[in-house]
Design brief:
five-stranded mixed sheet; alpha/beta
Length: 159
């Protein structure tokens, strides 16, 4: 829900967005449109394992896989979430996937997910959505994005 609050500030939210946040051992997926949460899921996906698979792949497909079993499983969960949102909930297809800032630098992750899904995948850039007195590094954003989203919760929603 915290990421939903932040994504609601993105122009893409008007047409539906899947937000992906990858943590140490789990990834959270949320499909939202116009600040409404439609799907929320967890997937087994560790950030270090994903980074290792992508380093090992070095731009090549491994036996038909996009990098390895962890990334393939994550992409499958993303596809299932998008299919459920579109077909079961009767919504227009989501326009893109936004990847929340990560504590580990994995610059090729959006491209690999995009190749697998055939959908635009880009980084969620909190610095473009809110004003900050001082610029934050990508690592700092990774640690505070969820807190920032929670702080953006509308006061009327708390009543």
């Amino acid at each position: 829900l915290a990421l939903r609050n932040l994504v609601a500030l993105c122009p893409a939210d008007a047409s539906g967005v899947l937000t992906l946040a990858v943590h140490d051992r789990v990834a959270s997926l949320a499909v939202t449109r116009e600040a409404t949460l439609y799907v929320a899921r967890w997937a087994d996906a560790g950030l270090e394992v994903l980074a290792g698979e992508l380093d090992k792949a070095e731009g090549e497909l491994l036996g038909g896989e996009f990098a390895g079993p962890e990334l393939d499983a994550l992409v499958l969960e993303i596809q299932r979430s998008l299919d459920y949102y579109h077909h079961e909930l009767g919504q227009r297809p989501a326009s893109c996937v936004l990847l929340a800032p990560l504590v580990v630098d994995v610059p090729e992750l959006p491209q690999r997910i995009s190749q697998a899904l055939g959908l635009e995948v880009s980084w969620l850039a909190p610095e473009e959505l809110v004003e900050c007195a001082e610029p934050a590094t990508p690592g700092q954003w990774a640690h505070c994005t969820t807190a920032l989203g929670a702080a953006l919760r509308a006061p009327e929603a708390l009543q």
